[in-house]
Amino acid sequence: MTAPRVFGGLAAALALGCLAVTLWTGVGRQSVALAFGVLIAVGELIRPQPPGPAGVSQTDGTRDPGAAGETAAPGARAREAAPVGAAGALSYALLGEVAGRSAQHGAAQAVSVVLAATLLGGVPHIWHGRGAASDHLTRRVLTVAFAAVCFQPLCDRGLFGAWDGPAHALLVLGLLVLTKLCDAVLAATLAHSRTRWPFGPLLRDELRGLLGIGSAVCATGAVMALAVAVAGLWALPVFCLPLLLTQLSLRRYAAVRATYRQTIASLARATEVAGYTPAGHARRVAALSRAVGRDLGLSRTELTVLEYAALMHDIGQLSLVDPVPAGATAGLPAEEQRRIALLGGAVVRQTGVDAVVAVVVERQADPYREQPVAARIVRAVNAYEEKSRDAGPGAPLKALEELRLATAGDYAPEVVESLARVLCRDCLTLPSAG
What is the pLDDT of residues 140-191, one digit of tens each? Predict the structure, then answer.
């Protein structure tokens, strides 16, 4: 049984149990529950939808090898898509008092209110076909339950009475940090199970996210819980406003990034429109390169650079007077490959794309021992795609074998074996590595 099913089943059972208990005992302090529910729902409603990799998009009816895993785990691409909702949910789980009076809700009510608000806020996203949120909902239920179970029973027994002032604030903040650490492990586990990407790099990316938006969620959640305990519900709109503005900025940034990706994808298609390369070649190389990069443990930033460079790796052919037959540069002499790569790098620099991408494009034809990792990947994946383009069921096997035989000088052995693993996961029958 896979991790998404295990944790999803656990979250479902926990949610049903909490709903049953809440319905049986009734909702305590309904105005407080409603206020936090509205805050969480609004946070979910305005959460941005991160774009998928530009190399995955298909318009020619073909399937990109390695692309399936790129769209399987939305949580892996967005560390915290709804920071306001997350902060509100954790704040409600760690709320002991409201304006000096008991909040009168336990762990079961905290989970129930957060679940209802998250579902309500996510309805428009599902309605417009912007993706299911099963992993997101699983993480939200389990993390809120963890925080509430750690805090609410002890709070009800009055064990936090001695923890006044700074000590109480540090306790709430510590519980929030511990909860977010558990959430990072859970997110990496779910993404690893769905995509089979290495667990270590996934966890590393999640932990890095805690230093950014994750720290803002923890700080805002702690401040809201402490402020509501003293000033009442009027503190909610005041202390959630900075994070709300941040989330709106993230939404606009996501839109700008989506446009940026589309621009790069359009530039990459220039060689196809001009007839220099076959249709879909750049997208297939980008999707497979990203899958190989993920298998090798590249970070999120490195994967983005790799994807953009793979999309634009053939753009230097636009400067050629005589097109290369079928755009197949892997069979050209080394000097000609380097000349085309340098022409491509010059074109990329003029488009305003990050200079790091241009460097990868320029060095894709260098000896692999002198190349950065991204350039090694683009070179090997491009050669595989060109060699396996021939019709017939044996073409992919033959292409991979040719790459393996050329690992002494042309292609990095670790990249070729990673490519073999990715293709194996894509249900291709390949000879054993080694």
Answer: 999 999 999 888 776 755 555 545 667 777 888 888 889 989 998 998 898 8
Question: What is residue 161's three-state secondary structure?
Answer: coil
Percent of the chain past pLDDT 70, that is, above it, reads 85
Cβ atoms of 176 and 136 closer than 8 Å = no
User: What is the rounded distance in angstroms from the CA atom of residue 407 to the CA atom of residue 246?
Assistant: 48
3-class SS at 67? coil
Q: Is the dihedral of CA 154, 158, 162, 163 positive or negative?
A: positive
From first CA to last CA, the distance across the chain in angstroms is 30
CA distance 174 to 405: 54
**Structure confidence by residue, pLDDT tens digits, 402-419:** 888 888 778 889 999 999
- Residue with tokens 């809440």, as numbered in its chain: 22
Give the Cα separation of 182 and 208 in Å (integer): 14
Q: Phi first, then psi: what are they for 98, rounded to 5°?
A: -130, 110
Reduce the DSSP state of residue 97 to 3 states and report it: strand
Residue 101 β-bridge partners: 98
Q: In Å, how far from its chain's centre is CA 17? A: 31
Helix, coil or strand: residue 428: coil
The secondary structure of residue 27, as a DSSP letter, is -
* 79 Cβ contact list (under 8 Å, min separation 6): 187, 205, 206, 209, 212, 213, 214
- The Cα 219–Cα 173 span in angstroms is 7
197: which 2 tokens?
A: 């990407």
Question: What amino acid is encoded at 158 in this protein?
Answer: G
| Residue 19: Cβ within 10 Å count | 16
Copy the structure tokens of residue 78. 């967005």
pLDDT digits (tens, 9 = 90+) for 238-276: 888 888 888 888 778 878 888 888 888 888 888 888 888
Q: Which two tokens stand for residue 33?
A: 């529950």
Average pLDDT, rounded, for the chain: 81
CA distance 317 to 335: 14
